Structures are given as C-alpha cells and as structure tokens.
Amino acid sequence: MRVFVTGGSGLIGSAIVENLINHQHDVFALARSDASHKMLADLGATPIIGDITNPAAWVGHLPNVDAIIHTACTFADDMAKADGILLDHLLPAARQMPGRVRFIYTGGTWLFPQTGPDTEIDESCMFDPLPDFQWMCPGIDRVLGDDGIDGIIIHPACVYATGRHGHYGLLTRDMETARTENRVTIIGSGDITLPMIHGDDLADLYRLALCHAKPGTSYFGVGINDVSNHHLAHLIATRFGGRDCKVGTITTQTAMDRLGSWAAGLAHHQVMSNQKARRDLGWSPAHQDIAADINAIALPAGNASS
Fold first, then answer.
1. C-alpha to C-alpha distance for 148 and 156, rounded to whole angstroms
2. How many percent of the chain have pLDDT more than 90?
C-alpha cells in the first residue's frame, strides 16, 4: 500500500514507518523539522514538509495514497483544537483520493475506566476518559462515522521502547532520574499496574490492522498487563541507579502538579485484554518480559549494576 503517516518521527510513528517499509509498503510521512526530514528519509520514507497545526499549508499537496495512519499530537494545551482542525482538512482529502482510503486513528487506553483487581476489560467497554484525553473521543467518532473512508481505531497502552531512534517512552523519566539523581518515583500506589506495549509490537499491530482489520473496528494495543508500579520502579532502580538507589512514592496530585494533569494516567490501574487483536489479526506481541527489555537497554551502556 501507499501509506501517509502523521507523527512519523515520534515514538509510535517512527516504529510504524520502519515496520511498514520493512514489509514493502510505500510510506509518506509528515516532517516538521530538518531532523525529522532526515530521519524519515534515512528510514526510506518520503518526507512531506508540514506541521499538524497548519494542515491547510500541505494537505492539498498529498500524493495519492491507499491509507492514512494518524499518530501525531501536539502534547500541548491546544491538542483538542489542533486535532479537530487537522481532521477538518485530512478527512476531506482522504475522501478525494482515487480509491477508498483506510484511515487508522490513534486513541489510547486512558480513554477507558480503571479496573478492579480481578477485572479485565475489552474493546466493548464504554469510554470513561481521563479529562486530558476526552478530546480524542470526538475524533474517534468522526473517523468511525465518516462514510467516505474505512475508519479503524488503535488504542495503545503505555508505550515503551528500547532505544531505537532514541526513544524509550514510558521508561524515560525514571531511567533519567535513576542515572542522574539515584532515585525512582512511584506515582500513586505501588500496586497499580499499567498496561504496556513495546513500540515494535505496537507497530506490528498497526500494520496488521492496516491490511486486515474490518472497517469500523477498534483494537487494544496491549502486550503486558501484570507489572506493578512497584516492580517496574525497582527494575529501573537496579539497572540504572547506583548503590542504594532510592525508590519513593508521590501522590497522583503531586505528579500532576509537577508533570501536568495528564500524569493522572500514570496512576490509572487497568487490566486490558488483547485477545481481539490476536484472534482477528493474528497479532502476537513478542515483548512479554519487561525485565528482559530493561536489561537489554542497560547492558550496552555498561551500567555498573550490570
């Protein structure tokens, strides 16, 4: 397929671009900066200069494509407005392509409620979004409700990576404080489990959904469910901290004050099924052992604790 990707140099998007190219798809990706342009070109994609906050400047110049994958976000106070304006331009452009376009929109697991200790939810669960992510719901409705495209939704869990293109995702903050300040911080309770997904596995899910998902379907991108905040913090402290690296706990409100209100998600306990993606798409996430992945990051750096 000929595929246009937004956010192609980011944590999720770069993994998708590389995965698609490795499977012989032709990829066009939006590039906001010279660095993004070079990275995408080096991967084998065709960069398209533009910014998601100003789609009018570039959307009319898109090449003919078979699919669009939208992973970009401003991560600022204008997220809702920027996404709405982007869809105002991108959806009509998709409808004007020569063939019917498959359009994958990125949601997230923080659109869904917390679960009890023995409860697992699947894609049939109703939305109950954290306030900072409510803006995704209208975007999802627009994509699934547009009769001129084949809309598909992927809901990634907390995404981590093992260093490709400099990305570590969920692990980044605690790795840095362990290395530089010899401390790791648990947000909320140590018993909380965050569903997680390695970026490479998530990219594989997007590709499989692109090729095989039925229009109108949604999938959870979840690879790991059972790692508590306490266990994850101690893994990072052991591999990236020095002797007696301190593991402390702060309240959710303190985390929100320090990092932004989005940080409420880091104390959002969830257990989420990935059986639909496994069954429908033949998806089989390879990264099931977070300890092995953390060790793989630490060892090349020659960490003293290794």
1. 25
2. 92
- Number of CB atoms found within 10 A of residue 67's CB: 25
CA 105 to chain centre: 11
What type of residue is 254? Answer: T
Average pLDDT taken over every residue of the chain: 95
Q: Give the span between the Cα atoms of 221 and 223, in whole angstroms.
A: 7
Which tokens belong to 126? 């109703």
Q: DSSP label at 111?
A: G
Split at pLDDT 50, 70, 90, the class of 275 is very high
Q: What pLDDT, on the 0 to 100 scale, is given for residue 306?
A: 32
Q: What pLDDT was estimated at residue 305?
A: 38
Question: Rounded distance, CA 201 to CA 196, Å?
Answer: 11
Query: What are the φ and ψ backbone dihedral angles of 189, each rounded to 5 degrees?
Result: -90, 145
CB 28 within 8 A of CB 4: yes
DSSP state of 194: -
Per-residue pLDDT reduced to its tens digit, 168-196: 999 999 999 999 999 999 999 999 999 99
Query: Rounded to whole angstroms, what are the CA distances from 61 to 50, 58, 129?
Result: 10, 5, 35
Element (H, E) at 240: helix 229-240
Q: Provide the pLDDT confidence category of residue 300 given band limits of 50, 70 and 90.
A: low
β-strand 26-31 against 102-106: which pairing, if any?
unpaired
Cβ atoms of residues 201 and 207 within 8 Å: no
Strand duo 183-187 + 158-160: pairing: unpaired
Which tokens hold the place of 68?
């669009």
Identity of residue 284 = S
Residue 32 in tokens: 């906001």
- Write out the two tokens for 4: 């246009």
pTM over 0.90: yes
Give the tokens for residue 232. Answer: 């994850």
Q: How sure is the predictor about 166, in pLDDT bands with cuts at 50, 70 and 90?
A: confident
